[in-house]
Amino acid sequence: MNEVPARSLPGIPFLLVLILGYLLAGYLFIGGATERNAAGPAAGLILFFLLSFLSKGFFQVQPNQGKVMQLFGRYAGTVRDEGLRWTNPFYAKRTVSLRVRNFESSRLKVNDNDGNPIEIAAVVVWQVVDTAEATFQVEDYENFVQIQSEAALRQMATSYPYDSHDSGAPSLRSHGKEVNQHLRDEIQERLGKAGVDVVEARITHLAYAQEIAQAMLQRQQAGAIIAARARIVEGAVSMVEMALEQLSLRGVVALDEERKAAMVSNLLVVLCGERSTQPVVNTGTLHH
Question: Distance (Å, rounded) from C-alpha 121 to C-alpha 126?
């Protein structure tokens, strides 16, 4: 069921007509009673009750709001025109907000793509774009939005690992833009039948579950240490290679292969060691 516009009239002009009608009803009632004419008061009362019934057709529409009309249970259309309006008094009216709204999900405990338990939460920005679907396709569209958004968040979280060990593979922690877009698409697919448009969806909380948080922290620290060591060794090898090349080009000292190996070993110890080295002064000759 799609939204269609309902027929309504501007309220101010019709209000003026009703006021004139009430004045006429009062004139007929008072004039007939004064002239002792029974037809006058009766006509005045009938007109008064008719105008009172017609006045039930007045309603107000605020900005970014829609009024869903039903006639004896049948959908008759939606009025989005702002201000005071008038329509069929038999219409039952229901207000549906078209404003942008948001909510933050609770912290959900799910398993990521690697099977690790994680905690995740998200904020969803949404608005109603079809009042008919929001009213008649689901029982309570606000509750529907909340439940389906959390279900989509769970589904999305299982599609990615928390942290990727392959630099090119997407993960929840490293590919925020891609993950948020996936989350929005997943929620929109579920909420489209309720006449709801998802403006934005993004993760607001992401962490390992408490039972594995410490182990995962140690794992991350170990990975960082290994990466740092690899960088240090790479730089040290380049420096040793440059030192040997410069010594050879300038002819500072001639080293055989055994002493080159000893020099390389000493330089690597100096460059890769965590503690500062203590120099040893050799007062003897270069050769034994």
Answer: 16
